Amino acid sequence: MTVATIAAQGPAVHLTSQTRILAAAIAIGFMVFILELIRRNRLQERYSVVWFVAGLGMLAGAAFPGLLEVVADLMGVRNTNVALFSIILLLLLGLALNFSVIMSRQAAQITRLAQEQALEKAREQANGSTPRRDSDVVRQGRREAE
Amino acid sequence: MRTLVFIPAWNEADSVATVIAGVRERLPGADVLVVDDGSTDATAARATEAGAIVATLPFNQGLGAALQTGYLYALREGYDFCAHLDADGQHPPAEVARLLEEVYEDRADLVIGSRYRARGAGGGDSGDGGDDDYRPTISRRIGTSVFRFFLTLATRQRFTDTTSGMRAANRRVMALFSESYSPDFAEIESLQLAVRQGLRVEEVPVRMLERAGGASFLTPLRSTFFIFKGMIVLVVGQFRPRKAGAGR
After folding, report:
1. Domains in chain B, please, with CATH?
2. pTM above 0.80, yes or no
3. Which of B114, B89, B101 is nearest to B206 (CA)?
4. What separation in angstroms does the CA of A1 have from each of A4, A6, A8, A74, A77?
5. B124-163 residue pLDDT tens
6. Domain containing residue A32
7. Cβ–Cβ gap B77/A121 under 8 Å
8. A56 in B contact zone (CB under 8 Å)
């Protein structure tokens, strides 16, 4: 196939209005689901932004099928499907890396937290653990006085 | 002048009490801390019975995190010097005392006990045959020589026993290691880090024994993974910024 014949084929993205409505519905449903997760405290706001962007991207694709062609053109990719999959793949790769970074940070935080707790207990033992016992006695004394 | 000897221990209930007793006998002036790295056996109880202070991590965090806990404790409780040794009985407490001498005399900031370096001849290349008491397995031997090569390349200083868990240190090292200590790759990265920060790191030949309890964690697959991780750590470590004002 030559470039001329491809150009003659016209727009490469053919979406029936049915598919477009379905895609839009999925995108909106996806974003509603994200909102619901936030509402039920299952997802923190700061981690939701990226998913909203993904939902909006889906919606934009459904509303303006020509958009993908423009993007593919900018990338210099002849096949819009290849462009679409490349973009999605790169985004998912970035997202997975982002999660690894977050995970590493949290692992470091958990380690420090565990260390602090262990140190606190060791310190108590080294100092004969008197401070806590004294306050316990005081508390108990108060309870008995009441 | 106060000294802390700490012992990272993970499921070493069989040997930890003996090690503590040995340290108390050889280093009567030192406080003994056992860092219990989330053991599921009676390690913490045995250590307490033997008269050590016990810092129990709520879950297993790995050797690096356990060692860092020891350095943190030493730093915060105001100890002047600290040393650590393994809980499995491989490290004779008498040798730890010799390492501590080096930091007491201020000949180095961090002293590593090396089972490969020949006694007496400080720079002599003895290879693996220098000590009759210690016979390493083949996978350990390969790992050791790989790390020896790369660490020497990275630090421009010759280290023979890069993974040695017997060390003595002063407060400069405590401050450095309690801030940054790789949880994955404690031994080697810490050496590189210390040298890069301008600290004086020295190896002292020591005698090591066969392990009294527990099994080595090194299987061939793990060794490979270990070596691979080590490469990443060392390469990245070369590009870490040096802290301004650190060192002497």
Report:
1. 3-237 (3.90.550.10)
2. no
3. B114
4. 8, 7, 11, 21, 15
5. 444 444 444 556 677 777 777 888 888 888 888 888 888 7
6. 1-78
7. no
8. no
